[in-house]
């Protein structure tokens, strides 16, 4: 077991499956947990997917390709309403914007008298958000994990295996927490100034390893909050963390299950929801059906699916969309499934290429992102398919750039989730990105080595702002105040494209990010180039009470 402490101060087997939509359109993945391929299950309608599908409606995905602004990385075709009126041009200006936004959030919370109530057992928040502390375990403490000098956050993440590069997310987050700690930023309303300490432990993207690590955080380390990566790992542990009443925000996963403030008030995700992304793929097919259809009048849509909760949420989301599509009889959905630690994707990609798809999506993460690009070039799919898609989690240029796959990623598409790539040349004039690159370099990290350093800076910024807001509430920094702050958040996020909203709103809006860019990779520019306007669905995604047996939102 590897322990990596960041102090803020100082898949061999594969499974094949082919589905013709017209005959078994209601089939979805079998189980949210476990190792089977999910075949043979009877689906129930996914209410969250249906809600998103209805909201997408007639949104034009892509439109006419428009040039990218080198200063912002955004489409020049975006409407003025997606651009801040006075975009900050320096870090000092950014800090003033954030200070004003934090003050507005604190005022809203205080004016509404949200937070811990006089009975000492009830926590109230925006739009009916409520936590009953009497249900917490005996001996629970609102300030466990806090000392007079530190805020201890426990994190499980892979530093080994096919997703080992994701460990750089924690390094990036620790770096920005360190910066603000050194500035004395985390001084709360009680006058106590603390430093954030991120204790990171390697789970290898294996939920069997995650479970004992979370137990250590809860029972031995007694941390203030827990932060984790990976749908399978979070799925196996979020029930226990909520039962123990420990803050669990910013899970590095877009699984829809984290949109459940009623049954899991202590947990939030942070990434663009995978089922929403899957609905956007479906809408993309509908809008380009005439272009995509073959001689038989049908579209063959092929997907490489990772065999875990992560891949299954994509697969299940697309199947739920397909079940209600008027074109379901005209879409052949073909899948090959790989295990998360598979050393290669060659065999399943070869099988998918043999189906001659007109559109392909890699529903994978980590090393398989670049492997899928390479295999599509070698097996001919790159030449024959009209559209090749990466998933949003593969957006960092360190996974698709020239150093990894040469120019083979040129022309690939992505529903990118709206995030900025810290290494994109289009961001060279962005003051926050320049600052973040320099900050990483000051502690010996080269942002170009991994786009996940940028992801870490992004989520670390989330932690910084939420801790600061919570500390300014009555009673100072507490576990309850942290969640009230998170569930009331609406700020301008420097690591998202203009027009992408970053917010939560109690029980009414449980997803931080509901917007996305649709982008195409340009190998010459080493950048994802947005195609048309930003897709923004903030507040439109329905909450998700996840049914693990049916692998669907109830």
List the keywords.
554 residues; alpha/beta; Rossmann fold; 2 domains; 8-stranded mixed sheet; 4-stranded mixed sheet; 17 helices; 23 strands; disordered N terminus
Report on this model:
- The protein has 554 residues and is of the alpha/beta class.
- It has two domains: 11-81 and 274-423 and 546-553, Response regulator (Rossmann fold); 94-272 and 425-490, Rossmann fold (3-Layer(aba) Sandwich).
- The chain is 33% helix and 17% strand.
- It has 17 helices and 23 strands.
- An eight-stranded mixed β-sheet has the order 2-12-11-13-14-15-19-20, sandwiched between helices.
- The radius of gyration is 22 Å and the shape is globular.
- The model is unreliable at 1-44 and 64-83 (pLDDT under 50).
Helix/sheet category: alpha/beta
**How many distinct beta strands?**
23
Number of domains: 2
Rg, alpha carbons? 22 Å
**Percent of residues in helices:** 25-40%
Oligomer: single chain
CATH topology of the largest domain: Rossmann fold
* CATH class annotation of the largest domain: Alpha Beta
Strands ordered across the widest β-sheet: 2-12-11-13-14-15-19-20
Give the termini distance in whole angstroms: 37 Å
Characterize the overall form.
globular
Main sheet summary:
8 strands, mixed
- Please state the average pLDDT score: 88
The number of helices is 17
Query: What is the CATH superfamily label of the largest domain?
Result: Response regulator
In the predicted model, the low-confidence regions spanning at least 5 consecutive residues are: 1-44, 64-83
Strand content: 15-25%
The CATH architecture classification of the largest domain is 3-Layer(aba) Sandwich
